[in-house]
Amino acid sequence: MTSIQGATVTITGGTGSFGSIMTEHLLARGIGEVRIFSRDEAKQDDMRRRLSDSRLQYFIGDVRDMDSVEAAVRGADFVFHAAALKQVPSCEFFPDQAVKTNVRGSHNIIEASAKVGVRSVVCLSTDKAVYPVNAMGMSKALMEKTAQAFARRNPTSQTVVSVTRYGNVMYSRGSVIPLFIQQLRQGEPLTLTEPSMTRFLMSLEESVHLVDHAFLHAEPGDLFVRKAPAATVDTLARAVASLLGDDDPDIRVIGTRHGEKLHETLLSREEMVTAEDQAQYFRVPLDARSLEYELYFEEGERRIARTEDFTSENTARLTVEETKELLMQLPEIQTLLAKAIA
Ligand SMILES: O=c1ccn([C@@H]2O[C@H](COP(=O)(O)OP(=O)(O)O[C@H]3O[C@H](CO)[C@@H](O)[C@H](O)[C@H]3O)[C@@H](O)[C@H]2O)c(=O)[nH]1
To answer: Per UniProt, which keywords does this protein have (predicted)?
Structure first.
């Protein structure tokens, strides 16, 4: 199969921001069937009413529960694994829950998919998994390791397992952009944790294309990232305010939250050494060496010392005007501005 047309795709966490935009994207691209796998029946019901498409099938279940996972992936060609505990503060307070969902749950998805012969599994990860300092990132790093270890241990498997790693997806549920908009509307000051903090910025639209790319082109154990630009939180706040007509917003600095980094890293220097430049993306192939390290000594990785991490500090840095341009591509912002003009 060289396209996803007519295929069956299971999306775990299918009612989340990422899962639902991926669903709409697949429906628009002539997909045969999309299975929404998630825990929340109310969210599924909302989605059923909103999208009303006979190609959508809904599965209630939990990635922690193998029976429900198997039922949802049996007969699927592709699995997009987006179900996760992804809020940094909640994982800091309940790391065991992050392990159950993000690590064990991902293991279940991969094992069940391999058992029933799924063609390709793409696991959604985050820049917070690189040099992780918080429990969410640590559990996602272990998810990545689970995917890579599967590929290394099962070189003849018909199931290709890969990872896509993202920075901040703009306007995702519970994130800072909708919060800034709410604060501006209520006439409150914009709360900035640390003005100089930087984050990679990408839209959901850009993010789903990377999943398509991984579905169709991944080799076992591949990791993909998008070459995204970044902005400081101060720039982001000023860009959002300016779009809403306020070029000199009130700003209150509140200090960083539990487990936050000043800058994020999309690829470590060790990964940059082997990364293949694919225009918009970097592809990092699996380190498929066995544990017999002396076999490789001659070729050893000496390039590491000459390479840098790929971070939100050293990637292309957006100005307020450039951030506004990026924000204006978001459907949510377009709707907001259209309403403001009407
Ligand atoms: O009142 C606030 C809240 C947040 N921030 C800052 O805004 C940036 C973005 O914050 P937020 O939108 O909450 O995202 P992150 O905490 O960076 O984490 C998001 O981005 C990750 C990818 O890096 C995803 O994995 C997470 O699920 C998602 O919550 C950060 O620098 C925050 O410190 C503020 O300045 N003021």
So the answer is: Isomerase, Lipopolysaccharide biosynthesis
